[in-house]
Amino acid sequence: MTTTVNKARQVLSKGAVLEWLAVVTSIYIILLAVGMIGAGFKTATGGQASQLFEFASNPFLGLVIGTVCTALIQSSSTVTSIIVGLVAGGLPVATAIPMIMGANIGTTITNTIISLGHIRSNKEFERAFSAATVHDFFNLLAVIIFLPLEIMFGILDKLSGWLTSAISGGSSMSIKGFNFIKPITKPVITELSDLLLALGASTQVSGILMIFIGIAMTFTAITLMGKFLKHLLTGKAKEILHSAIGRGPVKGISSGCVVTVLVQSSSTTTSLMVPLVGNGIFRMRDIYPFTLGANIGTCVTALLAATAVDGDRGVFALQIALVHLLYNTLAVLVIYGIPTLREIPPRMAEKLANIAAGNKSFALAYVLGTFFVMPGILIFASK
Fold first, then answer.
1. What pTM was computed for the model?
2. Which of 8, 76, 70, 19 is nearest to 230 (CA)?
3. Are 323 and 101 in contact (CB under 8 A)?
4. What is the C-alpha separation between 145 and 160, in angstroms, rounded?
5. Cα first-last separation, the chain
6. Using an 8 Å Cβ cutoff, are 26 and 224 in contact?
7. How many Å apart are CA 105 and CA 370, to the nearest integer?
């Protein structure tokens, strides 16, 4: 009996080691992919990648791009990592900031879809839908507050620029000195570029192919890493949830941040809350601070991705990653810190959930309107 138990432990231990190796491999693939996207844009545009994004110079278009892309991919971590790669390839930071804001809105669609699983029971659906949409309304309110401020004063651009300068000492050499990623990613990127050229692809086509390969790799790696981490950390995550939710806003926000860092997906973290509220285990207002912490925790992916970029563009890649962190942190401090603003998301979520519970088709209209129709209207208005 003892021998059997010991063998079982050995198998489990080996399995855990393999899964952790898979997580490390996924992280490497993300870093490689981000570097590939940046290199691809530089190659495809001959170093003039910023010209490709003149169509997104309007901040509303940038917001729409971030929202729709994230709603379709259902991963803000993937989209923000791609944005870091685009900035590394020449996309101006000021253009990328609204995209980051849009990514925050787009990621909330996952929660809303999860809440539809409770649609057979009006009471459960009302609770679940309110838990899902409180995140929507918080992120929408954050954009309403910070996008006009950014357009008028460039607060995030200036603050992130100051922090980047403080970290790098005003020189890209400092960032490069910390960059231990380049030696393990650049040879692979160079080999792939040479291979595509050897296969007959032109310089422009080679760059475009590298971009698409990098995007596909980013999406795949983040998905796989999330699955492995959820499996490895399920027990610990559950313990954190049960000990933290409903025990004060500071602890709730901190726990949401920690769990999201562990599973590398705010969509996953917040989606776990929706069924718990739907089943009456927690109230929507209990999980409200937890979802805000998830917004902060998801910024780790972009910061990690920024380490894959060096040189002059490495400074800007770090800056847009810091924009993501600053934006989500300031949104929590301002909206949750001011009682009047704090109450807007939960009250709006409760009202919307009450309407949706009485008319299920309204829930579908809300999803389509918020994540697809409204972005379309913004595009039309911006023109």
1. 0.73
2. 19
3. no
4. 18
5. 74
6. yes
7. 9
| Residue 365: count of CB within 10 angstroms of its CB | 12
Tokens (6 digits) for 264: 């590398």
Burial profile 248-273: b = 16 or more Cβ within 10 angstroms, e = fewer: ebebbbbbbbbbbbbbbbbbbbbbbb
Taking only the tens place, the pLDDT of each residue in 50-71 is: 454 555 667 888 888 888 877 7
Confidence of residue 177 (pLDDT cuts 50, 70, 90): very low
Using an 8 Å Cβ cutoff, are 325 and 319 in contact?
no
The residue whose two tokens read 């601070």 is 289
Q: What is the mean pLDDT of residues 152-168?
A: 89
Contact 78, 103 (CB under 8 A): no
Q: Is the pLDDT of residue 358 over 60?
A: yes
The overall average pLDDT reported for the chain is 79
- Three-class SS state of 36: helix
Residue 220: CA count within 13 A, CB half-sphere: 12
| HSE toward the beta carbon, residue 70, CA cutoff 13 A | 35
Cα–Cα dist 19/373, whole Å: 41
Q: How far apart are CA 20 and CA 13, in angstroms?
A: 11
Contact present, 118 and 275 (Cβ < 8 Å)? yes
Residue 382's identity, in one-letter code, is: S
Nearest to 356 by CA among 93, 172, 112, 110: 112
215 CB neighbour count, 10 Å cutoff:
20
In Å, the largest CA–CA distance within the chain is 74
Q: pLDDT digits over 1-48, tens only?
A: 455 445 444 444 566 778 778 878 877 886 677 677 767 766 776 655
**Residue 90: which region, alpha, beta or left (left: phi > 0; alpha: psi -120 to 50)?**
left
Within 10 Å of residue 190's Cβ, how many Cβ atoms? 11
Burial of 243 (0-12, 13-18, 19+ CB in 10 A): exposed
Q: Helical H runs in 169-244? A: 172-178, 182-198, 203-244
3-state helix, strand, coil in the chain (%, to 5): 90, 0, 10
**Category of 59 on φ-ψ map: left (φ > 0), alpha (ψ -120 to 50) or beta:** alpha
